[in-house]
Specification:
The chain has 277 residues and is an alpha+beta fold. It has seven helices and 15 strands. Helix 5 crosses helix 7. The longest helix has 16 residues. The model has no long low-confidence stretch (mean pLDDT 96).
Length: 277
């Protein structure tokens, strides 16, 4: 059941092998699109409002029209219901639609695809490898959740070759930035810290909620702070708060440490109280 994928596209829900988009869709040819990954709990997409807000920001930042929120919400409801899953991984993708083979766009219409599948188990801890490439905090698409993910694919493959489960980037200034699909928190001398958005990291939804439920200092951090941390954790939609156990092959002192455990408990309590915080 976990491997089965249901897809809403063109107004209908079908299984993945029956779902189609144009071969010249700009999301396919040049990665001209935006997306959100959302966890479904109790048949309800968690923090859907925040995810749709970010989807809109990403689309506008990429020069695309604001997605029709009512249509997206309808597609989400229909595909989750059709799947019959109460816990799932949901992905919303919006692209510029069919276009030329180069970077220029046609006038649309945009393509909307919503897919859902079962949740994979998440490891109790993570190991990361710092990659030799950097995030550009001055990029034209900084802070946007775009479908142009090849950089992340290469970085994650590098990390996995080192025996790690996630890759971590510095930015062009040599500061700690983010993972391929996660935000990074570190504890240094008892202070829980995370990089600011100006570092080039994505404004993660789980990051937002941890900042709202825990005492966190947001500040620039040297890349070296990760390896020197007393404890650290990653956050993402599917990881929630995941303790970090190993950095570049070196175990951290505590996984989870007390600040990590407290942040995880506060986040879990929030999820229990409200599925659309």
């Amino acid at each position: 059941m976990r491997d089965k994928v249901w897809v809403w596209v063109g107004g209908s829900v079908v299984e993945a092998d029956q779902a189609t988009v144009s071969a010249v869709d700009h999301g396919v040819t040049v990665g001209d699109g935006v997306f959100e990954t959302i966890k479904v709990l109790a048949a309800t997409p968690f923090a859907l409002r925040r995810h749709l807000d970010r989807l809109e920001r990403s689309a506008v930042g990429l020069g695309l029209p604001r997605p029709d929120r009512s249509l997206v919400t309808k597609a989400v409801q229909e595909v989750v219901t059709a799947s019959g899953l109460t816990e799932a991984r949901l992905r919303i993708t919006v692209t510029a639609g069919a276009g030329p083979l180069g970077s220029g766009r046609d006038d649309g219409p945009e393509t909307l695809v919503v897919a859902v599948s079962g949740l994979d188990p998440v490891a109790p801890t993570a190991a990361v490898a710092v990659v030799p490439w950097v995030r550009n905090e001055r990029s034209a698409v900084v802070g946007l959740k775009t479908t142009s993910y090849a950089e992340n694919v290469v970085a994650l493959a590098f990390a996995q070759q080192q025996g790690a489960s996630e890759a971590v980037f510095a930015n062009t200034r040599g500061e700690l930035c983010e993972g391929t699909g996660s935000n990074v928190f570190v504890v240094v001398d008892g202070e829980l810290c995370t990089p600011p958005l100006s570092s080039g990291c994505l404004d993660g939804i789980t990051r937002q909620l941890v900042l709202e439920t825990s005492s966190v200092t947001v500040r620039d951090l040297p890349l070296e702070a990760l390896a020197a941390a007393d404890e650290a954790f990653l956050t993402s939609t599917l990881r929630d708060v995941q303790p970090l156990a190993v950095v570049d092959g070196r175990p951290l002192a505590a996984a989870p440490g007390p600040r990590t455990r407290a942040a995880a408990e506060a986040f879990a309590a929030l999820v229990t109280r409200h599925l659309d915080p």
